[in-house]
Amino acid sequence: MRITSYTIEGDPILNDVVYKNGVIKYTYDSSRDKHGGKAKGKYKTQCKKIETREISGDGEGDRTEYILTGCEEIIGTHDSDNEEIYILNKWK
């Protein structure tokens, strides 16, 4: 599955999630981000689970967050403290 998001400037950020043989392979590709600086590039990791979290009352609107947990490396849009990678928000 490919999830494409865009920077404020309109550059694509690609998130590829592939589930095969009990393993979730995740690729974060910011190589097309013209304003990404030195950190832009293509990064890969493997994760154990995709989880959902219901969010409300935080001022951004009610939504479902889809996150990857149990990852070998924390890459892309993430929360380092909780070792979670954010892959999608679905607003209600």
From TrEMBL:
A family per Pfam: DUF4362
Domain of life of the organism encoding this protein: Bacteria
Name assigned to this protein: DUF4362 domain-containing protein
Organism, scientific name: Paenibacillus anaericanus
